[in-house]
Write a sequence for this structure.
């Protein structure tokens, strides 16, 4: 009882995710599980981006690059090196973290808009690089042999297992997000977001702190990438580094409310729900990118704090729970 | 020795292309210089120019160089519209707001474009002949495009320095508050400047359409080039943009002699980051 | 008395402009040093050089017997140097309490969140902001934001406090309150350098004054000496009798 009272901000997030996980279990329906998988994946990615965007205030337009890169590394270990999926996932996460570390060394020195610009180029550059990288299958990518799924009881069981692995990842992500937000490290991040110069004057060692934030925001996407492509059975450059995914992530974080734990979760949920509806409708299928664009524009122009941010502003008493 | 030859043959082409890239970059540099906004819908404007040319030429039979006038006008008007819808409200907000706003516009346009044109490559099959210069062949399209780019640059310069709206633009660039106090209608000037920037992007797109096949997503690649050129020449400095364009054009001519063409975005990105780290105000310095 | 800070021939150029030239002085522990001069004289530039924001190109700065000429701003916070800004820099979306906690957490004593919270409450009471602790920092008025910056600086438990125009924009009674706060801070053992334009206050509070003009040190001494120094009067005060009148008003 005491833990809940001390950390009210984590209750709602955990409930939402638990609901999403239990839903297909209760309904027993495979298509429900697929939908839930997509939403959970979005939650994991959005919450990770939130660490960089929401807490630290650094806009990254190319965050999907960690998903793709980690995915490639993980699938490579599973497909070419014959590893089991579990170390494969870890490898993807570590590889992404490492990429973030190296990239961060180069571009975290850039402030605000320039950093954002640099991140735009990253995705394009990585896609071009992987296209040339024969070890990762070049433009064709890698196809997972069926035998890869044998140790897990066959492809069907492997899919089910992926779902629970993802669920576990999402829970970890939320807890990490919450811990960061309520920690001294998180306070430092938020200080940077509000005013980086003032934060430095007060003693926040900004280069280190920012690097950590970047690395932490990259690890889970890397792991999620491995899981997704494991389930997909195939990885290739345009699917690993999709252009529209970057904006979708931004929309999810900002729609729900960046800088909170709950925000990205609600944002991911709402956006995926809306997208699911749109994809079915013939007219909207082709212009989902435009719809995402319109949404983001409206958010930026009118409710930059997102749904959760707006609620926190209007109803201050809910602040402890809507964290 | 073979490589040197290859170099020499691709050099003139690179220079000519560079003029066009420079034109595109100027559009970006202008908007940044006047209102401190990085226009992330730049790529979609270039794509608009490309597809506009295609539609006019292939569907309506209008000669690309004539169609360019229409494209320029459409580019200008689009820019003004985009300004009022997306940029005006966030012009005084932190940079990131305008970044996100223009980014959204980009996505909106590309989304609609994808719905209409899909992501397949298109081609404006168009020949203006060629002639030999020593051991190189120079394509007519390249030469004319470079000339047009230079023409537009000169036109822009004249506009900025010899006309009243141009003077207003320079005033607003220098100090918006002071300009407003002196009676300059800053909102309209900002909208005009934005429109000019997008116009240049659209025109460069039209020119590029006469060189290479393109798709709705090509704009992104040229946008990256524009950023690289922008930081090379100093965002906000139109002449710097032109020179930066030449440098990049030459680089792009040289690189395929040593590496595969698909390495080009990687090198451009690396160059971009290096410049931002070493000399963020560009080789020529930022806003004048 | 030990020397807390030693500025030795510090110079700084910005392109063609010599912002600081051969600034030299020692600051004993526990002193309140007033730093005055016309606008653009280089006072904030000197603070920026001391604080690591724009390090000096020439000269040395010794703080507590360590050479900090090239030290990074955040390192100096750990070493016990704190600073307020001429144009306040609040962490707007964070509460006042959180703002002050940042100072406590990342300052000299590297406190944990719990301890930082207590210090924040304490220091906020000292500057008179207890009523506003849970409000977002952005919602405060200028005077309150200045007090918050002061609280942030104090929460880091510094040895040296650099105050940059902490009285600017305040009315007469606010100035009274702030000046007595400054004196109370010194009573706690903290050494202070104050950049100020409010002559009356800085003359009253400072033990010693240094005058800068066009990046150069043109005078140094007690408030009385400075107010009578012809160079200072010429550069700054205009009316030679103004300083006397100000001193007499007390």
């Amino acid at each position: 009882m005491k833990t809940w009272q001390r950390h009210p901000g984590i209750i709602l997030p955990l409930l939402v995710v638990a609901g999403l996980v239990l839903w297909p279990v209760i309904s027993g329906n495979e298509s429900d599980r697929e939908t839930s998988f997509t939403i959970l994946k979005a939650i994991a990615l959005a919450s990770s981006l939130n660490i960089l965007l929401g807490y630290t205030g650094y806009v990254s337009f190319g965050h999907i690059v960690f998903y793709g890169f980690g995915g490639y590394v993980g699938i490579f270990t599973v497909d070419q090196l014959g590893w089991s999926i579990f170390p494969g996932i870890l490898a993807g996460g570590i590889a992404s973290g490492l990429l973030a570390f190296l990239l961060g060394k180069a571009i975290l020195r850039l402030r605000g808009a320039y950093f954002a610009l640099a991140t735009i180029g990253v995705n394009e550059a990585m896609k071009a690089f992987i296209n040339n990288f024969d070890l990762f299958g070049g433009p064709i990518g890698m196809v997972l042999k069926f035998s890869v799924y044998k140790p897990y009881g066959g492809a069907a069981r492997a899919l089910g297992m992926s779902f629970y692995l993802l669920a576990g990842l999402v829970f970890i992500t939320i807890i990490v997000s919450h811990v960061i937000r309520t920690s001294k490290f998180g306070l430092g991040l938020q200080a940077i977001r509000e005013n980086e110069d003032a934060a430095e004057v007060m003693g926040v060692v900004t280069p280190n702190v920012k690097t950590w934030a970047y690395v932490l925001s990259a690890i889970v996407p890397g792991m999620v990438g491995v899981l997704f492509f494991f389930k997909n059975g195939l990885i290739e450059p345009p699917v690993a580094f999709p252009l529209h995914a970057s904006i979708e992530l931004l929309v999810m974080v900002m729609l729900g409310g960046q800088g909170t734990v709950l925000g990205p979760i609600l944002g991911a949920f709402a956006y995926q729900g809306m997208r699911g509806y749109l994809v079915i409708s013939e007219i909207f299928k082709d212009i989902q990118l435009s719809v995402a664009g319109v949404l983001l524009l409206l958010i930026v122009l009118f409710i930059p704090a997102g749904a959760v941010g707006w609620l926190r502003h209007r109803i201050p008493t809910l602040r402890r729970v809507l964290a | 020795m073979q490589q040197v030859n290859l170099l020499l043959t691709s050099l003139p082409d690179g220079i000519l292309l560079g003029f066009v890239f420079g034109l595109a970059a100027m559009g970006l540099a202008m908007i940044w210089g006047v209102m401190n906004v990085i226009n992330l819908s730049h790529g979609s404007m270039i794509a608009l120019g490309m597809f506009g040319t295609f539609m006019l030429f292939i569907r309506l039979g209008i000669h690309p160089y004539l169609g360019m006038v229409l494209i320029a006008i459409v580019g200008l008007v689009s820019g003004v519209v985009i300004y009022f819808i997306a940029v005006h409200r966030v012009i005084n907000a932190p940079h990131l707001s305008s970044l996100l706003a223009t980014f959204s516009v980009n996505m909106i346009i590309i989304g609609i474009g994808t719905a209409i044109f899909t992501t397949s490559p298109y081609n404006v099959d168009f020949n203006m002949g060629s002639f030999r210069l020593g051991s190189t062949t120079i394509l007519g399209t390249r030469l004319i495009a470079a000339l047009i780019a230079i023409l537009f640059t000169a036109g822009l310069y004249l506009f900025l320095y010899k006309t009243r709206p141009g003077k207003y633009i320079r005033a607003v660039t220098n100090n918006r508050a002071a300009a407003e106090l002196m009676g300059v209608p800053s909102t309209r000037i900002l909208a005009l400047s934005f429109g000019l920037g997008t116009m240049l992007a659209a025109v460069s797109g039209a020119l590029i359409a006469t060189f290479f096949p393109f798709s709705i997503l090509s704009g992104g690649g040229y946008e990256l080039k524009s950023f690289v050129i922008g930081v090379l020449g100093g965002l906000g400095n139109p002449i710097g943009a032109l020179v930066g364009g030449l440098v990049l054009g030459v680089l792009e001519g040289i690189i395929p002699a040593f590496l595969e063409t698909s390495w080009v975005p990687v090198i451009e990105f690396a160059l971009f980051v290096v410049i931002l780290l070493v000399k963020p105000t560009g080789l020529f310095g930022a806003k004048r | 008395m030990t020397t807390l800070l030693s500025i030795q021939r510090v110079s700084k150029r910005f392109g063609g402009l010599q912002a600081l030239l051969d600034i030299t002085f020692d600051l004993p522990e526990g002193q309140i040093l007033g730093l005055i001069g016309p606008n653009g004289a280089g006072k904030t530039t000197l603070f920026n050089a001391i604080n690591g924001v724009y390090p000096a190109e020439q000269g040395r700065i010794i703080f507590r017997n360590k050479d900090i000429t090239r030290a990074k701003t955040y390192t100096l916070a750990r070493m016990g140097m704190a600073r307020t800004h001429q144009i306040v820099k609040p962490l707007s979306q964070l509460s006042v309490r959180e703002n002050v906690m940042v100072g406590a957490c990342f300052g000299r004593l590297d406190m944990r969140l719990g301890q930082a919270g207590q210090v924040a409450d304490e220091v906020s009471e000292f500057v008179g902001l207890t009523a506003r602790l849970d409000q977002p920092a952005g919602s405060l008025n200028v005077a309150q934001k200045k007090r918050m910056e002061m609280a942030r600086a104090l929460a880091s438990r510094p040895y040296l406090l650099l105050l940059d125009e902490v009285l600017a924009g305040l009315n007469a009674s606010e100035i009274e309150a702030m000046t007595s706060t400054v004196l109370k801070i010194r009573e706690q053992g903290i050494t202070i350098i104050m950049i100020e334009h409010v002559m009356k206050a800085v003359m009253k509070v400072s033990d010693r004054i240094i005058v800068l003009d066009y990046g150069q040190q043109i005078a140094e001494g007690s408030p009385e000496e400075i107010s009578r120094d012809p160079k200072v009067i010429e550069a700054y005060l205009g009316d030679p009798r103004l300083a006397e009148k100000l001193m007499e008003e007390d």
Notes: Chain A has one domain: 2-320. Residues 220 and 230 of chain A are 15 Å apart (CA to CA). The radius of gyration of chain A is 19 Å. The domain at 2-320 of chain A is CATH 1.10.3470 (ABC transporter involved in vitamin B12 uptake, BtuC).
